[in-house]
Amino acid sequence: MEIEVVVSTMNNDISLYDQMNLQTDAIIVNQGDTFSYKEQQKKKLCRFFSFKEKGVGLSRNNGLMRVQKEICVIADDDMVYVPDYDEIIKRNYRKYPDADMIVFNVRIHEESTVKDVIRKNHRVRKYNALRYGAVSFTFKTRVIRQSNLFFSQLFGGGAPYGSGEDSLFIWTLLNSRKKIYAVNDTIADVYNEGSTWFEGYNEKYFYDKGALFKALSPIFFPVLIVQFVIRKFSTFSNHSFNRVEILRIMYKGAKQFGNRETVRYENECKNV
Predict the structure, then answer these.
(1) Global pTM?
(2) Nearest alpha carbon to residue 79 among 198, 187, 195, 199
(3) Average pLDDT estimate for 236-249
């Protein structure tokens, strides 16, 4: 069982392999100003692609289509992997041989706090699937290719809608009845120094969330919107909108997702 890490980054170079303490084969996909390719033998093979394109979904897809190993690991450039992450991943795929995907704990460092994403092992179902970011994703490459699954280019950093490409990825995999496990073994530390898309709980944030819920479930998106507002409102309560206003904005985002006006907005965002 061999592992390959796909790293999405911007304006970086091949030295990122060492900065992230990578120990396995890796594909680094740089969003920059030129098209170029190089490979270098480090602890394992590192392939570095630079594309004159923007968007985290597009970047990850460029890497995903080039993965050659059995297990693919998704990474961002603000991660530092623990020294034995490869053995941790292999051990858990042996422990859960029926797993198509395993999400691992990563320690989130933000300001003066450190937070674990996963505290106990469990199966991932739809009711708990939307809490996991792509930096915790590992999966069997064969399964993803058989499912014809890629990351959305409409959602995420550099895309028209601010976030959600990871939620759509894992949700689509669950829709195809694949088995996903969450494991509390830590594979990396994530140092959040700032988001490329999050600008606070403003109108665009709620509009984009509404669009995401419509993309996740064209029929049951109203339920997803209402539960989101009920569960998360205390997080938003110090900001400009009350519950009714948030619901109205989210419904607007959901209703307009995919219509002519929104398609024009998506195309304009791609050209920025």
Answers:
(1) 0.87
(2) 187
(3) 82
